[in-house]
Amino acid sequence: MDYKISVIGSTGSIGKQTLDVAENLGIQVEALSANSQVDVIAEQARKFKPKFIAMGSEKAAKDLKLAISDLDIRIGWGSEALTEAAAFESADCLVTAVSGSVGLKPTLAAIAAKKRIAFANKETLVCAGEIMMKRVKECGAELLPVDSEHSAIFQCLEGRGKDQLSKILLTGSGGPFRGKKRAELENVTPAQALKHPNWSMGAKITIDSATMMNKGLEFIEAMHLFQVKPDDIQVVVHPQSVIHSMVELVDGTVIAQLGCPDMRLPIQYALTYPNRMASRSEHLDFTTLKDLTFEAPDFENMPCLRLAIDCAKHGGIKSCVMSAANEVAVHMFLRGELGYNQIYDVVEDTVNHFDGPADDIDVVIEADAEARKYVNSNYGK
């Protein structure tokens, strides 16, 4: 396939699966980035022979240079190197697989370079959705979703104007604690929360799926990506994760996208759109499907979802603050410094502490930093 990509965050779950898709389709990888996982990215470098690699620190860059000294690959480090990798001149498409607000400026650079952007970095739209969508329109870039839910919505809406849309039906499995009362979750351990019933993902997103904060972040993403109001989106719990999301049209027709729970499918479609190509993913066998069930989300016992929807309706920096606070709180939980239920308590407190417009990228980045500082100062050990 005569197509070239750059992947920032290539050592994470989405990054690794993107490279698996690239290998299967014969896509050339031009640039990669990682924070500090030298061994993993050295192996990727030997396999895919990129032209450039960005590392998070000078030490990591030096270690990588030693590890692949026999390869002719340029290596940089820091925010400028990450931005260079994101907007790499010879790449047709950027896959943003980094986590956190670190992805904001690199994504803007790729937009300015008129790249196709296959984004899995939720903060891109959660923190700065209005800014990003405005810049995409101004620059003529493409922003295509990698999240399975947003890819499903995107596919269901293909060829249809927004005037035909009545409602987005955003599905979620409900995570490992579906049906549990909040009081029952008081002593949940990281190991328990990391056991997602359907998906294999990174640690942070798996915890977000357990708390349903991930569905809240996806709610905000969908609002910006598809340019709809919060009231135009309905969250539906679908435990089997076979229907990845649906749209209801104005005449009452509901269109759904189905598939096995495999992130390589939405990744591949974002890379090959509007074409479809054979993949390594398992195909659905309808004769083995016993049930497809649906239920309303439990806002009382999964309050992170309710909080995210409230932030979406409020606007301004609330969503950014919520996302940043949640990221810090989740990592505290994974380190054993916070209880499971405290994740919500910490995020809610932080959200209530900040307010203001989100009309400039530097304002958004500052809000993100201040929210993280607030959580660490008030709840860190």
Structure report:
The structure is a single chain. This protein is an alpha/beta fold and 381 residues long. 45% of the residues lie in helices and 15% in strands. It contains 16 helices and eleven strands. It has a seven-stranded parallel sheet, with helices on both faces. Helix 10 packs across helix 14. The longest helix is centred in the last third of the chain and has 19 residues, at 361-379.
Topology summary:
Elements: E1 4-8, H1 13-25, E2 28-34, H2 38-48, E3 52-55, H3 58-67, E4 74-77, H4 78-86, E5 93-96, H5 104-112, E6 116-119, H6 123-126, H7 129-139, E7 142-145, H8 148-157, E8 165-172, H9 190-193, H10 203-211, H11 213-225, E9 233-237, E10 243-249, E11 254-258, H12 264-272, H13 303-314, H14 318-334, H15 342-353, H16 361-379
Parallel strand pairs: 1-2, 1-5, 2-3, 3-4, 5-6, 6-7, 8-9
Antiparallel strand pairs: 8-10, 10-11
Helix pairs in contact: 2-3, 4-5, 10-14, 11-13, 13-15, 14-15, 14-16, 15-16
Major sheet attributes: 7 strands, parallel
What is the percentage of strand-forming residues?
A: 5-15%
- Helicity range: 40-55%
Q: Unreliable stretches, pLDDT < 50, 5 or more residues?
A: none
How far apart are the termini? 51 Å
Structural class by helix and strand composition: alpha/beta
Radius of gyration: 20 Å
Kindly report the spatial arrangement of strands forming the biggest sheet.
Answer: 4-3-2-1-5-6-7
Strand segment tally: 11
Return the average pLDDT rounded to an integer. Answer: 95
Shape: globular
The SSE string, one letter per element, is EHEHEHEHEHEHHEHEHHHEEEHHHHH
Counting DSSP H or I runs of 4 or more residues, the number of helices is: 16
